[in-house]
């Protein structure tokens, strides 16, 4: 499967904050193979960002949070891969996935230049924003567009995970102040 | 106890012991499925054990801020015996949108 391209974690964040929203580019209703690709990409982006944070941050709360992100998003993506295999769907690259990845790469490059408290703050702020953005896309575009019931259900679980992460990130952001 | 003790009196003693302790501790199961605690609200008493059965592929916690926390690994269980009475709200530290409630009688 070709979705292994790596959008960086940072890019994810950047995407969230910088671009009005890559999701807005998808004027047409995405198909299930596209939705699967977008959801998987969104998870990969957050894992990449988390790995950068694990490498760079010296703050326990930030590193713990990043480890939680890696664990959860990898678990979601394993389920997503199992599901597409079962449904014999091939995830299909698309403009939204590409915009997500590009924004994420840019953001990651930005984060990579920061150190210490500045990095922690920027990473966590981006996590809040990114999860908010993905939640919005799941609620208004991806879930309503999904045709397959199992895909829809997995996206709904993904939404709850992302909403939880957003709150978790907001809590960590509060602790960094 | 002596080997010669009549069986009927042993049974009687057992029966008495059971009847005389009305507060037999129970194990109460809470299921976690797709980031939801079910039932969300539990009535229990001190000495009861809560067992969280996690059907998700994600780790969760049952956390009471500033008090206790139970780790509940993916597709596994976490348990805790209630030690004090009172009503507490708990949540998952990894996914704070997951919420539960315990009413613990003395
Ligand atoms: Cu949780």
From TrEMBL, chain A:
Record's signal peptide: 1-26
**What keywords is this UniProt entry annotated with?**
Signal
A Pfam family this protein belongs to? DUF4142
Where does the DUF4142 domain start and stop, copy by copy? 31-171
Q: Which Gene3D superfamilies match?
A: 1.20.1260.10
Coiled coil spans: none
* Protein name, per record: Putative membrane protein
Automatic annotation (TrEMBL), chain B:
Fetch the Pfam families from UniProt: Cupredoxin_1
The reply on keyword Signal is yes
Keyword list (alphabetical) reads:
Signal
- As recorded in UniProt, coiled-coil segments are none
Q: Which residues form the EfeO-type cupredoxin-like domain?
A: 7-102
Provide the leader sequence positions: 1-25
Identify this protein by name: EfeO-type cupredoxin-like domain-containing protein
What is the organism field in this record? Answer: Mesorhizobium amorphae CCNWGS0123
């Amino acid at each position: 499967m070709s979705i292994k391209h790596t959008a960086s974690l940072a890019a994810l964040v950047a995407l969230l904050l910088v671009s009005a929203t890559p999701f807005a580019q998808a004027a047409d209703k995405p198909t299930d193979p596209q939705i699967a690709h977008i959801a998987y990409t969104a998870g990969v982006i957050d894992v990449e960002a988390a790995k950068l944070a694990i490498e760079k941050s010296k703050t326990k709360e930030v590193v713990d949070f990043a480890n939680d992100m890696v664990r959860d998003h990898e678990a979601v993506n394993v389920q997503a891969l199992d599901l597409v295999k079962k449904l014999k769907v091939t995830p299909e690259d698309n403009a939204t996935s590409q915009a997500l990845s590009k924004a994420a790469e840019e953001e990651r490059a930005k984060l990579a230049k920061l150190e210490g408290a500045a990095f922690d703050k920027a990473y966590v702020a981006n996590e809040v924003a990114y999860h908010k953005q993905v939640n919005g896309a799941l609620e208004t575009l991806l879930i309503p567009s999904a045709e397959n019931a199992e895909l829809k259900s997995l996206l709904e679980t993904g939404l709850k995970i992302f909403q939880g992460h957003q709150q978790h990130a907001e809590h960590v952001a509060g602790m960094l102040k | 106890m002596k080997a010669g003790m009549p069986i009927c009196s042993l049974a009687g003693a057992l029966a008495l012991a059971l009847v005389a302790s009305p507060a037999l501790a129970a194990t109460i199961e809470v299921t976690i499925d797709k980031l939801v605690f079910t039932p969300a609200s539990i009535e229990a008493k001190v000495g009861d054990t809560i067992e969280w059965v996690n059907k998700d592929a994600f780790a969760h916690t049952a956390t009471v801020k500033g008090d206790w926390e139970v780790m509940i690994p993916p597709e596994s269980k976490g348990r805790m015996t209630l030690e004090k009475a009172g009503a507490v709200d708990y949540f998952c530290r990894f996914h704070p949108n997951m919420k539960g409630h315990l009413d613990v009688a003395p």
